[in-house]
Amino acid sequence: MRVAASTLKRFFPIIGIAILVSLLFSSLTIAQDVSLSERVSYVNACRRVIRTAEIFDNSSLGPSQNRVGTLNVDEQVTLTGVLASGGAQVYQANPDGFIQVLGWVDAARLTECNIGPIGSSCYRVNTNLNVRTSPSTEASLLGNYVVGDIAHATAEPPYEILSNGRVWLEVFVFDNNIGWIARTNRDGSRNNVTLLPSNQCG
Fold it and tell me: HSE on the CB side for 142, CA within 13 Å?
């Protein structure tokens, strides 16, 4: 992980993550005019980075001068349980048993640590589909699926974007790389893939 010199360097002894989160939550609520929430089930939850993620010192995820570092694909972080709209506060534990709060990242760039190329959401391809580098018919081709292939979503729930009338689905391709397929046609009248039960995603 690359971290700028301005990254928060203060270490907190482990006196219980719940206490740490409570203190952070209180200070952030005062310091920022944003809506924050705490989800207890996310405290200490492991997350894996599926797209390069910028780390910010605020829950607004910007502007660029507030960027304090970068998380690379496949790095792992831990959630504090504090969330903002589209953002999650994360930290990493150091080998000496102390916690370093890293900051805020785009939650859509994270997935559960145990979800890989074969995740809990998969789709049967109903028509030949191009796999592209971004959610656009103008984006570069990575490859293609043919009818009957199985496409695995990168995240749970699946990460989708509406662009130019089509719903695009982010999928794993080629040794854990990432691409995009059009889940629907432009007018939304046809599904190009069918969601399968998790027991068929092996």
Answer: 19
Question: Can you give the pLDDT at residue 195?
Answer: 92
Whether the CB-CB separation of 94 and 11 falls below 8 Å is answered with yes
Residue 24 · residue 101 · CB < 8 Å: yes
Rounded Cα gap, residues 22 and 29, in angstroms: 11
Distance CA 7, CA 68 (A): 5
Q: Which of 114, 120, 102, 134 is nearest to 48 (CA)?
A: 114
Residue 145: name the closest of 166, 120, 172 by CA. Answer: 172
pTM as predicted: 0.49
Instruction: Dig out the tokens for 176 from the structure.
Output: 């854990």
For 11-63, where are the E strands, in sequence order? 11-13, 37-38, 46-49, 53-56
Question: Taking the C-alpha atoms of 133, 138, 144 and 150 in order, what is their torsion angle to the nearest 10 degrees?
Answer: 70
What confidence tens digit (pLDDT) does each residue in 8-63 have? 333 333 334 444 444 444 444 434 456 898 888 888 888 888 778 899 999 999 89
CB proximity list for 12: less than 8 A, separation 6 or greater:
20, 98, 99, 100, 101
Of 106, 103, 87, whose CA–CA distance to 8 is shortest?
103
- pLDDT tops 90 at residue 144: no
